[in-house]
Write a sequence for this structure.
């Protein structure tokens, strides 16, 4: 445990708030407790490919004694989420050895961790992984860095849009990220008081949306509504009509993927779903969801994950990912995480049922009897 070590750390995949908090925790604990060296690897595996490093120390980023890493979004190490990494596997593996690393800490989502785990297996790296994703789809962990902040960002947007929706009697459609998993839309929709939440895991119908909007108007005298739509929400079960935005490519599978996004798709479908024309507006939050100052919960999660990663290296326990389970930090085999990711929303789970109990339309499979 007292042997000097050189630790590499990298951030991979899409950025999110809280990554710099992990870096801060790793560097401080490694230096104060073990007197180890920590090297930042810029732009994920690209840094290993090019043998590039960024020396990290406890006060290297201070400004007049203020540590900015705790509240700085994004990642000071940079990140990439494109390219064929495995095509350059030999050069990347050689980079790990050339830099003289004793272990590598990788902060990434399910896709990034899968690729880095393959590289680690090929190169016999000492790897410890930390989950980050605003999609919340990394398996075997109840918390992932960035998710809480992203939810708060969306809820803030919903709060603002609710006032203008009520002022103009409009249906505001908020499109959020989530191609294969609807955790972000579901959590933010419930917390933000949405009337409709559409996610990839639950089928819906255009008629179901129209009926719900009509009920809000006729029974509850509500002249506005908030609809939260995950970008990967499937086409309506009863969707046979035309769509003005056009479709992507000639692949038949793309016929349910409009170029202008799922939010605009829903807007066009419900605009004339009753005798009373529905005035709709669409807000696509896009990469706004990835930015911003990390929330307190994301800072805490990042800090304990960073500390635990260094302790795993001290114990020489590798090929593990840190996870939050039952109120504490544990470690799980990375292969188990890869095998079970991405982790979708349970269509019959407690959160979906809670949304339905609050009168939120989520889809036909869970609300069709209403």
């Amino acid at each position: 445990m007292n042997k000097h070590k050189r630790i590499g750390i990298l951030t991979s995949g899409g950025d999110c708030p809280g990554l710099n908090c992990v870096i801060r925790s790793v560097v401080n604990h490694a230096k104060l407790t073990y007197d180890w060296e920590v090297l930042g690897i810029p732009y994920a595996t690209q840094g290993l490919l090019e043998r590039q490093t960024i020396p990290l120390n406890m006060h290297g980023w201070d400004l007049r004694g203020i540590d900015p890493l705790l509240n700085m979004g994004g990642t000071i190490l940079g990140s990439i989420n494109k390219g064929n990494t495995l095509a350059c596997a030999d050069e990347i593996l050689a980079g790990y050895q050339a830099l003289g690393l004793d272990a590598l800490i990788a902060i990434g989502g399910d896709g990034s961790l899968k690729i880095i785990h393959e590289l680690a297996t090929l190169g016999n790296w000492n790897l410890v992984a930390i989950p980050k994703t605003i999609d919340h789809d990394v398996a075997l962990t109840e918390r992932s860095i960035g998710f809480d902040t992203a939810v708060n960002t969306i809820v803030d947007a919903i709060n603002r849009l609710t006032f203008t929706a009520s002022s103009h009697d409009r249906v505001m459609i908020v499109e959020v990220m989530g191609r294969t998993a609807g955790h972000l839309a579901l959590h933010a929709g419930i917390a933000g008081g949405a009337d409709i939440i559409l996610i990839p895991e639950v089928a819906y119908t255009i008629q179901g949306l129209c009926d719900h909007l009509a009920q809000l108007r006729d029974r509850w005298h509500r002249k506005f509504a908030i609809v939260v739509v995950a970008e990967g929400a499937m086409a309506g079960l009863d969707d046979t009509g035309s769509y003005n935005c056009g479709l992507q490519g000639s692949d038949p599978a793309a016929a349910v993927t409009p170029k202008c996004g799922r939010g605009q798709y829903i807007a066009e479908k419900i605009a004339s779903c009753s005798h009373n024309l529905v005035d709709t507006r669409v807000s696509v939050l896009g990469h706004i969801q990835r930015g911003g100052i990390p929330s307190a919960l994301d800072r805490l999660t990042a800090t304990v994950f960073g500390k635990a990663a260094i302790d795993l290296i001290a114990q020489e326990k590798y090929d593990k990912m840190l996870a939050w389970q039952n109120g504490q930090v544990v470690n799980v085999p990375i292969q188990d995480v890869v095998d079970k990711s991405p982790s979708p929303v349970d269509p019959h789970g407690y959160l979906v049922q809670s949304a339905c109990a609050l009168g939120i339309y989520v889809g036909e499979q869970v609300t069709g009897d209403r």
